[in-house]
Amino acid sequence: MATAAAQSGKGQVYFLSHGGPPTMFETTSAPYKAWQKYGKMIEAEKPRGLVVVSAHWENPSHSDGVVVNTDSSNPLVYDFYGFPKNYYEQKFASRGDPQMLKDVTAALKSSGVEASTDKRGLDHGVWVPFLVAFAGKTAIPIVQVSLPGDSNPVSAAKLGKALSTLRDEGYSIMGSGQAVHNLRDYMMGGKGSYGDAFLHAIEGALHSDAPAEGAIGLFRHPAYRQAHPTPEHLLPLVVAAAAADPKTDALQDIFVQPNGPLGWGMWMWKPKAAL
Fold it and tell me: Which residue numbers delimit the Extradiol ring-cleavage dioxygenase class III enzyme subunit B domain (predicted)?
């Protein structure tokens, strides 16, 4: 079981591709092993807590504000359909933290991000990769924050910037989506030739001197509409890029692999001083 400890240094920033639920059973696959690698990174850093933003929770009000989960038991939301029964029997044990919840809501408020609360739990964009990363349970506090409801990358960047202030308190920030996400094309057997070009564009944006601006610019890329027929799986990448500081952080590739319509990308930003 992972142990949580107050971190004296600055928190990290991560983006994970979470794929589909079957990946949590594909123990020999490269994405599965990348999630395990991420888990080892987190356990080594011992963050004070993890603030997570997933593609699968958008503010239902459709505003540029967000919603914060206040259910400290972190129940699991099985927000996928048509899978075998055992998919809905998987468990991942974690908890929130009252002080962390206060810190998150205070950071949002002080940065001008409107935030409401809801007792919801963790959707599969969080618990599926975490189940693998932490072998089913973790003592690291986890608080999930929704995406803004307006589907605007500028609002996502504002959220990431607001959450970045929590890093100085030892919290790590994580966005969870998919680098390339055209599920319909994938299910139809499409090769997704646009996916490789878009994944290359993501890498260029993140490795630039202005990753947040670069991530926002991806929404104007010629392949964007094919790579992301809807924006929700790319918005968490904007959140993560905006939570990073290109002047003080070093970007590290955790796992990047073209996969046509469902390309994989996972990255970490870590303070250069900690390297």
Answer: 14-251
